[in-house]
Design brief:
This protein is an alpha/beta fold. It has 3 domains: 108-155 and 197-254 and 272-395, no CATH class; 401-632, TIM Barrel (Alpha-Beta Barrel), CATH 3.20.20; 679-801, no CATH class. The relative contact order is 0.10. It comes from Thermodesulfatator atlanticus.
Length: 828
């Protein structure tokens, strides 16, 4: 989209392709023409690839490497020139990525996207018929949820991430299309900035960047609410402002994810929640002040102005002291005597002022409603009040909803001593005994009272997290629900045990327990696990009281265990079996929430064809139709993980494009007539073959060694989270399963072989090539799954992979030494 300008820029600028952060090789080579070097190496690689026709044992990548080594040895090439070439290639790859991102999100023109959003609203039941109640009911449903996570994919510096978002959107933060001068400045930055992660990626940096992404999502939602109310005013002139739209939620677990982590202090998590409360109150204060300024200074507006002044006063009073609270809880993470004493004093003041503390969003909503009643003569004021009320109702006293997360093992450790848990909860010889023991705890549980001192004293991660949730509800937001995610759930025992702690700390009415099914065992037993959960009288009562059943699926972890295509197939089966469980337990019209956790790359579940393909891949039309057929209210959530996920939301107009694609997906008819489901025997065996191949690979100790040895030396840190879960760090590495999904996937990308996506597909095709070809042509679902492997194959290079392996081959170095012309190089 800007290739012509780029060509002119590179021709005129005569840039030195070196990072301004520092030069690695000196003296700097000012003589070598980097463009000529680039063309020369491209031609050499093309020539080496042609040699394969005559010598199938030749490796063009290794031949190019040897060619470079010899040129360096002879002095024909300098390391400085290679450094400049690397910088140039980084810039070119960055620009290609920006173009892909632009195409991926589709239309980015804000006017076109707003028009599409307007069409979505117009299509909702009730609007065309001028049936206010039906339309309000349509708007009041939560259809989708966007979840921002802290997965370690912060592979680019923040400045480059923002430039990537701006280039992909084609607009700056003000919404103005990028002009030639701005593009030239971006090009200059791209070719002179180091394309690496920030030197120190702390949790605080991740949280700050997550907040930036969330605020841009909310800007896009504000435009959507603005469109919605203006359209509603045309159809319901008497009461349009009474509409209560929900439709989309925004959540974050950045700072609250303790799955396999010991490095996040509870005080830091609480400080993040206090900071988010403060930012929300500041935003509401700014909006209320703006609305007050819109009001005329006239007698007929006095009551309205007084009401708005009351809102402003309440918010201002609650902002007093907020900075000190945040600072004290942040500092307490150090654990010094002085910081704990400061924490004790602040905690005491917070408790004493609790009666005056704003912790219920409904308090603000009630005051906004009162102001709206008094603003009937002022349409624009009423319009802004309607949007503000919508934001308070949807986001509460925070910038978003929050998800907390821990691992099933951490729940088991917390309850182990209470029931004598000595084996796996699924152990057939003890399973019923363990469940009866938890039932006995649930039958006799009496809520306990805790304070911040309780958190300081508690050493069990799970209990401490439930206590933290209690304090968040008490001091930050007592009404907005908190999701409680449990990673690697493989038994109904785990969420039922978690329910005991929820009741013990008196938070079961405000949290939504959500088992995460991501391991092979969990994926194939997931529906049965939910069935057992609902068969438990205590859990069933809890779900009915909450009005929602929540689960989470993990494409990323499942992909490394089963292979990505087989993982998608397994998750779709889980979703379809879940529909039968819902029917069995007659849960309709209960809300069913499925959080489809996936990453930003092929191996972690993000289909690369388009944003629409991505959504279709994780939420198949057939499974959605079957879940909706039960009468349940289906809400689908999906993740945007780390820096690679935030890039969609570092420009407000790119964020608007993503939001538009989601609502367009909601309007898509659910086409369920697909041969994929008629040829079930073949489909099942096909993906079983893929799964078996990947399970064998995951158990292979050599594969674990490959990932471990190369991962330690090839990957830069891309986040604050460790490569392995911290309760596994002390163990000797025995299998690839112990390496977390993100570094696992990143190593395969670096090695040039996306084995977790393409592995096993060839064997599956080979079993019946004719039926494979026929189904791929006739089945949209099958074609979508297979196309993921095709994309992965196109990004793989077996010669690059073999080149990396050759580095560890002594024979390769012996042959290289024999060919060296310099005796010193031979010795080296």
């Amino acid at each position: 989209m800007w290739r012509r300008l780029l060509k002119e820029f590179l021709a005129k600028e005569k840039l030195l392709f070196l990072p301004v952060e520092g030069v690695s090789f000196e003296p700097v080579d000012y003589e070598t023409d980097i463009f000529a070097l680039y063309q020369s190496l491209k031609e050499s690689l093309t020539h080496f690839r042609l040699l394969i026709r005559e010598n199938p044992f030749a490796n063009p990548i290794l031949l190019l490497a040897v060619n470079l080594a010899r040129r360096l040895e002879k002095g024909e090439l300098t390391f400085s020139a290679l450094e400049q070439l690397t910088q140039f290639l980084d810039g070119q790859a960055f620009l290609a990525r920006a173009e892909r991102l632009h195409k991926y999100v589709g239309v980015v023109d804000p006017l076109e996207n707003l028009a599409s959003l307007k069409e979505f609203v117009a299509s909702l039941p009730g609007l065309a018929e001028k049936d206010f109640d039906a339309f309000n009911q349509s708007l009041g449903r939560e259809l989708f949820g966007l979840v921002v996570t802290a997965h370690p994919t912060f592979a680019l510096r923040e400045e480059l991430l923002r430039l990537l978002a701006d280039l992909a959107s084609g607009r700056n933060l003000a919404g103005v299309p990028l002009n030639e001068s701005q593009l030239r400045e971006i090009f200059k930055n791209i070719f002179t900035k180091e394309h690496l992660s920030d030197p120190e990626i702390t949790l605080e940096k991740e949280h700050r960047l997550a907040l930036e992404a969330i605020f841009n999502i909310k800007k896009a939602l504000w435009r959507f609410y603005d469109q919605l109310f203006r359209l509603a005013r045309e159809h319901f002139p008497e009461k349009w402002w009474q509409l209560r739209p929900r439709l989309v939620t925004v959540a974050s677990w950045v700072g609250y994810d303790l799955d396999g982590r010991r490095d996040i202090a509870w005080t830091q998590s609480f400080a993040f929640r206090l900071e988010e409360r403060k930012l929300a109150l500041e935003y509401y204060l700014k909006e209320a002040q703006y609305i007050l300024d819109l009001c005329p200074i006239a007698q007929e507006a006095e009551a309205l102005r007084a009401c708005l002044a009351q809102i402003i006063q309440i918010i201002s009073e609650n902002l007093s002291g907020a900075e000190e609270e945040i600072a004290v809880f942040s500092a307490a993470s150090a654990g010094s005597e002085e910081s704990l004493e400061a924490l004790r004093l602040v905690a005491k003041r917070m408790y004493q002022a609790l009666g005056r503390r704003l912790v219920r969003p409904s308090t603000l909503v009630r005051l906004i409603d009162e102001a709206a009643q008094k603003a009937q003569a002022f349409p624009e004021v009423l319009h802004r009040l309607a949007i503000l009320r919508t934001e308070v109702e949807n986001f509460g006293l925070g910038v978003s909803h929050i998800h907390v997360r821990l691992n099933a093992k951490q729940i088991h450790n917390a309850i182990r001593g209470l029931i004598g848990l000595e084996t796996d909860p699924e152990d057939p010889s003890s399973k019923k005994t363990y469940l009866k023991a938890v039932d006995a705890l649930l039958a006799g549980v009496k809520p306990v009272t805790i304070n911040f001192g309780s958190l300081i004293a508690e050493r069990t991660t799970a209990k401490r997290l439930f206590m933290l949730v209690t304090q968040m509800l008490k001091y930050c937001d007592a009404e907005t629900p908190i999701r409680f995610l449990i990673a690697e759930t493989e038994s109904s025992f785990t969420p039922i045990a978690a329910l005991y702690f929820a009741k013990l700390f008196n938070v079961e009415e405000k949290i939504d327990l959500s088992p995460l099914f991501e391991t092979p065992r969990a994926l194939f037993r997931g529906a049965r696990i939910v069935d057992e959960m609902l068969a438990n009288q205590f859990y069933r009562r809890y779900v009915l009281a909450r009005g929602r059943l929540c689960i989470q699926t993990g494409f990323s972890d499942a992909g490394r265990h089963l292979g990505q295509t087989a993982a998608s197939f397994a998750i779709e089966n889980l979703r379809r079996r879940l529909a039968r469980v819902i029917e069995k337990h007659r849960l309709a019209p209960l809300e069913v929430v499925i959080f489809n956790t996936h990453g930003e790359s092929i191996g972690r579940g993000a289909h690369p064809a388009s944003f629409k393909a991505r959504l279709q891949y994780i939420m198949s039309p057939r499974s959605r139709a079957e879940l909706l057929k039960t009468g349940a209210l289906l809400k689908e959530e999906f993740s945007f993980q780390g820096g690679d996920g935030y890039v969609y939301f570092l420009n407000p107009y790119l964020a608007l494009a993503v939001l538009t694609r989601i609502f367009e997906f909601a309007r898509e008819p659910l086409d369920t007539d697909d041969p994929f489901y008629r040829e079930w025997d073949y489909v099942f065996e096909f993906f079983a073959t893929v799964q078996q191949f990947n399970e064998r690979i995951m158990q292979d100790p050599d594969y674990a060694l490959l990932l471990h040895e190369y991962g330690r030396n090839l990957l830069y840190p891309t986040g604050s989270r460790a490569v392995r879960r911290q309760f596994e760090v002390e163990k000797q590495l025995f299998s690839a399963a112990e390496i977390r999904a993100i570094p696992h996937n990143a190593i395969l990308h670096q090695l040039g072989l996306l084995a977790n996506t393409i592995g096993g597909v060839g064997q599956a095709v080979k079993k019946n090539p004719e039926q494979f070809a026929c189904l791929e042509q006739s089945s949209p679902r099958f074609k979508l799954l297979i196309s993921l492997a095709e994309y992965a194959f196109s990004f793989s290079d077996f010669y690059a992979f073999l080149g990396y392996l050759a580095i560890l081959d002594p024979g390769f170095w012996l042959m290289a030494a024999a060919q060296a012309e310099n005796p010193q190089h031979t010795q080296e």
